[in-house]
């Protein structure tokens, strides 16, 4: 078998800089359907927060459930200190009917039972309500419960509804049944109010879907970022404390309701259960330095400090110890609340940094930077001493090449897989900037958002390009650049974790948030399917290799040409290597990993030679591939592109690897016993 490419790795040439596991981080944001998909609640409008635009007298997604001729519905003020509305149902006994509310949901089989929580009250003659989950198509009862109403005043009630099977087109119904004892209709009778209704499956992790938690755990993320455009208008105190008392607020960045069920405490729990470090971006847009400092104290202050006492009162007496805090999210963008000039942001940053450091001097601060140096220079000139990390966001797409959805797909492909060349140019400019003044020598780089973004987030049809193998190849090559720059890049946050926009690497259901035209969620009958995109498997592949340091590698291979940028500026793209390669060692020196991204459109046979490593051992090749680079995972085929593992023969420090076109590989070589001993001695 003749090789047409060669990779030479020298394990004795080891970088002085450790690879930070934070480079494989992720990112959660209250954007579009991110939280609805991530959290386990099947119901919407749980606090009856929406108005009655769809059905008069009924909040948002709720619908009437009655066969009574005179049943009336109305939205009334919420219970004391609660947000949203209360949903009123007026029932007339002489109708001899059932009456209540219903909402369409999708449920999974749950023998332990969904937890139903009601906050309700009723006139004294109404003694109980029935709750049931039914198949809307057949009227089959999937789970039922009877709830005794013990007070005329507001009270919380809980019940378990075991569900016998999965059902995509189910319905929750809560109602006074027709067999309830009748009463004499009068002005003060037949009244039922709901202030809150929620369902939660028994296997949820807090409020998070168990499947999402399990898939996220396999990503071995290192660090998880809470941020995004919404954060610049987010006031953290509105997202802590008793759930009922948290206000329902409009998401000022993305429209719709902000999710009040995933605040600071829920985010920290999410991170702790995953074993990852939290990174929180504060509101510098509509917020104040004092508010940001209070957030730091809430997370890190002792229980005898004002905000530490608040945290303890909310059930968390021990400080969270959140070390990483970001000031500013895309402040340079006109879409951002608090948008300003670089000079104005530098002044603002100093005020925030001083206040936050006063609350906890041990925290690390990230300042909002940009890929444009004319933003970064004024910021560093004024505030570099108070900055630990400069942040940038890297989104790679077709517009920078003047391309659109009519561009031939092979030309688009070559442009998209040039992602690392663009990243390398930006990092080099920042490296030069950091080296231009000894005041900047301590700075590190945090790429707090990155992904492919093929086209602007407007109306698109069909399955998203961001979910293809092509996007995974581009993102993998970009990760290689992060590893090559591990002396500078210490944090990376893939954008984003779940749904939200087209880039979410974990997908829940069949709805694509940027597809403003299209079928309603659940149209496939597979709206509860949870799966990973091809890029999910790239992130999983890279983050679980136990990397410690980059080692020297040289690659001989063919080249390709990508279309020049539309602006004329940017990296040279006329002779790009088909194979993008980076090699790493683990801490012991006994395991070597070579990441190989075949960006080419043809298969490659590559000879790999290892210098300064064990002569023999075990070799495994992790492979992410498909027959076509536009192959996509979906609810129909959630595992069309996944990671496969192959055992290879390794002897005399050489291997032969067969690499398919447009594919991602991790070659992992583990030294035999003698090789491990030699590494230990070395």
From TrEMBL:
Pfam family, one: ASD1_dom
EC assignment: 3.2.1.55
Domain Alpha-L-arabinofuranosidase C-terminal: start-end pairs: 448-663
Catalyzed reaction equations: Hydrolysis of terminal non-reducing alpha-L-arabinofuranoside residues in alpha-L-arabinosides
Keywords assigned by UniProt, alphabetized: Carbohydrate metabolism, Glycosidase, Hydrolase
PANTHER family tied to this protein: ALPHA-L-ARABINOFURANOSIDASE C (PTHR43576:SF3), ALPHA-L-ARABINOFURANOSIDASE C-RELATED (PTHR43576)
Full protein name: non-reducing end alpha-L-arabinofuranosidase
């Amino acid at each position: 078998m003749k090789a047409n490419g060669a990779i030479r790795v020298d394990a004795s040439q080891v970088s002085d800089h450790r690879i930070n596991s934070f480079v494989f981080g992720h990112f959660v944001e209250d954007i579009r359907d991110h939280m609805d998909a991530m959290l386990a609640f099947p119901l919407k409008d749980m606090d009856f927060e929406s108005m009655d635009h769809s059905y008069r007298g009924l909040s948002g997604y709720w619908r009437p459930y009655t066969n009574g001729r005179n049943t009336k519905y109305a939205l009334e003020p919420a219970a004391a200190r609660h947000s949203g509305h209360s949903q009123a149902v007026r029932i007339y006994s002489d109708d001899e009917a059932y009456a209540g509310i219903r909402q369409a949901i999708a449920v999974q089989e749950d023998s332990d039972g969904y937890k139903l929580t009601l906050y309700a009250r009723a006139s004294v003659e109404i003694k109980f309500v029935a709750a049931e989950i039914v198949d809307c198509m057949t009227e089959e009862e999937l789970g039922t419960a009877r709830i005794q109403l013990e007070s005329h005043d507001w009270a919380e009630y809980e019940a378990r509804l075991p569900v016998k099977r999965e059902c995509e087109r189910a319905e929750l119904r809560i109602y006074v049944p027709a067999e309830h004892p009748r009463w004499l209709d009068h002005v003060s009778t037949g009244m039922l109010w709901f202030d809150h209704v929620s369902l939660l499956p028994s296997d949820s992790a807090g409020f998070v879907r168990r499947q999402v938690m399990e898939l996220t755990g396999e990503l071995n993320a290192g660090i998880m970022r809470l941020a995004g455009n919404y954060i610049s208008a987010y006031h953290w105190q509105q997202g802590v404390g008793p759930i009922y008392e948290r206000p329902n607020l409009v998401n000022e960045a993305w429209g719709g309701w902000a999710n009040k069920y995933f605040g600071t405490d829920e985010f920290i729990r999410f991170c702790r259960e995953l074993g990852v470090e939290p990174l929180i971006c504060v509101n510098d847009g509509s917020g104040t330095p004092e508010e940001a400092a209070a957030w730091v104290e809430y997370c890190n202050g002792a229980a005898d400090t004002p905000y530490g006492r608040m945290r303890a009162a909310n059930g968390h007496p021990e400080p969270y110890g959140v070390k990483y805090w970001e000031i500013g999210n895309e402040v340079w963008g006109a879409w951002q609340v608090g948008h300003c000039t670089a000079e104005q942001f530098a002044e603002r940053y100093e005020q925030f940094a001083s206040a936050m450091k006063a609350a906890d001097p041990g925290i690390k601060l990230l300042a909002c930077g940009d890929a444009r140096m004319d933003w970064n220079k004024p910021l560093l000139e004024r505030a570099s001493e108070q900055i630990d990390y400069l942040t940038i966001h890297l989104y790679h797409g077709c517009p920078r090449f003047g391309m659109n959805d009519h561009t031939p797909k092979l030309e688009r492909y070559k442009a998209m897989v040039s992602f690392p060349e663009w990243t390398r140019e930006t990092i080099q400019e920042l490296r030069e900037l950091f080296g231009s003044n000894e005041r900047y020598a301590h700075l590190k780089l945090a790429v707090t958002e990155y992904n492919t973004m093929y086209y602007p987030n407007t109306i698109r049809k069909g399955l998203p390009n961001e979910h293809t193998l092509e996007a995974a190849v581009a993102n993998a090559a970009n990760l290689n650049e992060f590893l090559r720059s591990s002396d500078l890049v210490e944090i990376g946050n893939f954008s984003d974790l779940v749904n939200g926009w087209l880039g979410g690497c974990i997908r829940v259901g069949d709805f694509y948030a940027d597809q403003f035209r299209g079928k309603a969620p659940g149209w496939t009958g597979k709206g509860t399917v949870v799966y990973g995109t091809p890029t999910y498997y790239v992130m999983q592949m890279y983050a679980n290799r136990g990397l410690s340091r980059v080692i020297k590698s040289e690659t001989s291979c063919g080249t390709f040409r990508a279309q020049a940028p539309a602006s004329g500026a940017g990296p040279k793209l006329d002779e790009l290597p088909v194979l993008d390669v980076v090699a790493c060692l683990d801490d012991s020196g006994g395991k070597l990993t070579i990441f190989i991204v075949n960006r080419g459109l043809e298969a490659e046979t590559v000879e790999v030679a290892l210098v300064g490593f064990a002569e023999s051992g075990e070799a495994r090749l992790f492979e992410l591939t498909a027959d076509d680079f536009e192959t996509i995972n979906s609810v129909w085929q959630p595992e069309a592109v996944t990671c496969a593992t192959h055992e290879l023969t390794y002897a005399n420090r050489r291997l032969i690897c067969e690499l398919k076109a447009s594919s991602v590989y991790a070659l992992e070589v583990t030294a035999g016993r003698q090789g491990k001993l030699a590494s230990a001695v070395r």
